[in-house]
Amino acid sequence: VTNKTGVKLTRMNHGLRHLSMRNKKKVRSWFDYLMYGAAMATPLVLLPQAFTLFSDKSAAGLSVDTWFLLGFLNVLWVVYGLVHREPPIYIGNFLVGILNFIIVYGIILYR
Fold first, then answer.
1. DSSP the chain
2. Sign of CA dihedral 87, 92, 98, 101
3. Which of 9, 17, 48, 74 has the most CB atoms at less than 10 Å from its CB?
């Protein structure tokens, strides 16, 4: 590329070209499938907390602010996953977000 005076201009590549050249056909690796499993298993980690909260009917030691912020961050991750079309991100964070907000409900209920 040259300018009006005939001086050759060079384009600078800042290492971002790969972002615009994503493969139209995605190839799934074993790690992708592992992450699908992790996305589905992650909500299981919160089940003991939710079970204890509702069975004991006590929110002692639980912060509503923390659990609400965790749920809000999950909403952001769901949006990010949808924009980038990454099912492990949006499905896993949707499920975890639901459980986070169920725990928020329990904390408010059993204060």
1. -B-TT-PBP-PPP-S-HHHH---SS----HHHHHHHHHHHHHHHHHHHHHHHHHHHT--TT--HHHHHHHHHHHHHHHHHHHHTT-HHHHHHHHHHHHHHHHHHHHHHHT-
2. negative
3. 74
Q: Taking the model in full, what pTM does it have?
A: 0.71
First vs last C-alpha separation in the chain = 68
Task: Name the token pair of 8.
Answer: 């050759």
Q: Is the dihedral of CA 57, 59, 64, 68 positive or negative?
A: negative
Q: What is the pLDDT of residues 45-77, one digit of tens each?
A: 999 999 999 999 999 999 999 999 999 999 999
**Interacting residues of 79 by C-beta distance below 8 A, sequence separation 6+:** none
